[in-house]
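Appendix B, Record 12. Input sequence as logged:
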Amino acid sequence: MDSLAGSGLASLGCVKLTDLVPSEGSPSDAYKRSVSTLSQSLAQFSAAIIQFPASDGALLRSGLESARLYFHQRESYPPADVIHTSESREWCKTSGYYADPHLWQETYDYRPGLTPPEPNNPMEFPPSGLPDIFALFGKAARVILDAISFHLNLRSSPFTEILDNVPLRSREVSSSVLSVCCHARPSFQGAQHHNITTQEDGQLVMYPDHDHQVDKSLISLVKSDKLGLYVKDFQGRWILVDGDLGPQDAIVYPGLALYQATAGYVNPAMRKTEVNMEGNMFGRCSLAFKLMPKSMASLNCSEMRAAGHGVESQFQLPVPVDDFMQRTHPTDHLLNKNGFQCFSFPPNHDGSMKTMMRRRKQNTKSKPLPPSKRLRLEAQRVLKERVQDIADKKGIKLRFCNLKECESHIHTIDSPCANIRMEIGWPPGVPFVHPHDLPNKAKLGFLEAYEPGWTLAHQTPDRNQSP
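Logged structural output:
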């Protein structure tokens, strides 16, 4: 696939869902353009607009109207047994109504296999059309996931083994969930202290207690009836992503599970919601679908390795999904791949191994690093701080070659990596492989290319030493 080189998108990319549906044989031009737009929008803004067929717009509209009526008829103060936060340990077992008063948010979770098709209480009807909307969003999320896989040069449907069966088998419960949400319903009085601030023009806006949130999903799809969803772009700016959507448009953004499964190549979206309170009768209602991995599966990067991508140390070991979902992930440094917090998942043994590693680290802290290891660390640093920054700004996904094969690539103009090497200024004569895997002499050439004078500024390691 062609690299996403260029000046970048001026605004959020908009892609028709029908153009992303794969077909047998060679990819069509429409498919390649759509994958390119989607991937570049996710790289720049961590979100994109997905346009459903016009016939699906009526289903989405009726779902939002039903959501408004459902929440409007509910009591003003939630019972204690339905109050909990999204960080519940039962992440794959939520169903029905619950409320988070601190975020001034109400949610009805629809989870096939767990949520009964008929209401238990005949006096209270849930939002309508949930099975149809779940099926619509679920199919779209899988199509989008496959398009991202195509861009990463992975085999088709590489994540099938960690997704729910389609359809679910007998007695299976869906890990994925459709959440019907309502923010800031005026008649909802659950919060003791509403986090409200006044804008300069006098309009009241509700801000969540937390500055931002990050979904733990693979893919999230959101359709709302009012604007207010902000996502942080790769430059650290908050971008309003649902300000001008058509009736069949929805927002898609990746989550932490996809970040883990792709070894950090797909950035998770940092998001927040702001609600304009003026003239707001029903609050802000939205339909949010999260494509989740199965609880009994593991997230691993074997497909990324098979495609030739460099997999850094924090992604080397498989991570049980249930363990991943229940852990708290620091998001202070979540902006782009350069600044991602490294998620580590130590094995669940006793503390002896952990203590041993801690002691070994303390004992060797004062020892100078061997020249070869210092070169490896410096090469990895430059990859993160220099090369990845250039690639992100140009919308290029780095897909490294095999060292042996690339020795011939660097001498031909039409090689698979020629365009990427030219776009990011890769040094001539240096194979296009992950800098960690380069021979020491090639590492020096790599470092000098992106930080001229590096050799003079540092103690030069032995060039003849094997890596």
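The longest strand covers residues 284-291.
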